[in-house]
Write a structure and sequence with these properties.
Elements lengths: L2 E9 L6 H10 L3 E10 L10 E3 L2 H13 L8 E4 L5 H17 L4 E4 L4 E2 L3 E2 L5 H12 L2 E2 L3 H8 L6 H14 L3 E7 L8 E8 L2 E8 L8 H16 L2 H22 L11 H4 L7 E3 L1
Parallel strand pairs: 1-2, 1-4, 4-5, 5-8, 8-9
Antiparallel strand pairs: 2-3, 6-7, 9-10, 10-11, 11-12
Length: about 280
């Protein structure tokens, strides 16, 4: 049994943060210990929501309680996503340190949420610097989108070669595995989107059809799925192939239904036996 401590935001209605990551992990047979950094009515993509943001101490207290149960020695990975504040970021770092102390083989998968194409930076001031200078160097796996890869590497990438250089620059900061999502390079067709998984000097690309939809939470789901498959295969290429197929199936069903929310539960079979698979190419 694989155990993952997932420290992320949470919404009651819809799917984002832990409400997007936990169920796919569970459907794959992973035991998840969710710790919420916020409790909102819905994701912020609606423009209005209710609820509250927790502080770093609240996260520390929950993780301390898990440690008191003697469970951290069985924790295989920490998964983190959107950080509402640097205070929460330091709480995540403290939690990772506790887990690594109890189980030195445990890994940290950090989704360095900063911004996206068309939206720019949407996190609070100080978070981009915290991600690049503190979080990413301490992580084992990072899952930036193309926009975030450029910010972390302090470069502007268009060609596949420049993307690979940017990935190498991020790996030089600390993490050994980089999954770049929503990748659009010069050779990416207009009707497609690429994902690139990089590890040990090798780069693996999957190209999937571009779907006409705008939803929240898909990035949280793919980070979780990639982590689950990497933990089992220890192969970035294999993890990429399986995660990409599952997320495409999830998004295809969501697009066909015209849903504003990803159909996380309705698409659950896609996590185990994806309807469509895609070739992985080493580039």
């Amino acid at each position: 049994m694989v155990n993952v401590l997932s420290i992320q935001s949470h919404v009651a209605y819809g799917h984002a943060g832990n409400a997007s990551a936990v169920f796919p992990l569970q459907r794959l047979g992973v035991e998840v210990w969710p710790v919420h950094t916020v409790q909102f009515s819905n994701h912020t993509g609606y423009g209005a929501w209710t609820g509250r943001v927790f502080d770093g101490q609240a996260v520390d207290e929950v993780v301390q309680g898990i440690e008191d149960r003697g469970a951290l020695a069985r924790c295989d990975a920490v998964l983190s996503g959107y950080l509402g504040s640097a205070d929460i970021g330091h709480a995540v770092l403290g939690s990772v340190a506790k887990v690594r102390s109890a189980n030195p083989a445990a890994v940290w998968c950090c989704d360095p949420v900063i911004g996206d194409v068309g939206r720019g930076v949407f996190v609070r001031p100080g978070i981009p610097e915290f991600m690049r200078e503190v979080a990413v160097p301490a992580a084992d796996i990072v899952t930036p989108n193309h926009y975030e890869l450029d910010l972390l590497s302090q470069s502007e990438t268009r060609s596949l070669a420049s993307v690979k250089d940017a990935v190498s620059a991020v790996q030089a900061l600390g993490p050994r595995v980089v999954l770049t999502t929503s990748l659009v390079a010069e050779d990416t067709p207009d009707d497609a989107v690429d994902l690139l998984a990089s590890e040990g000097g090798r780069h693996f690309r999957v190209r999937t059809p571009r779907l006409d939809l705008s939803v929240n939470g898909a990035g949280d789901a793919i980070a979780a799925l990639f982590l689950a498959h990497w933990l089992r295969t220890r192969s970035a290429g294999d993890a990429l192939a399986r995660a990409a197929a599952s997320v495409f199936g999830l998004l295809r069903l969501t697009a066909e239904a015209g849903s504003r929310e990803i159909l996380l539960v309705a698409a659950q079979d896609e996590y185990v036996t994806p309807t469509r698979t895609f070739d992985v190419t080493e580039v």
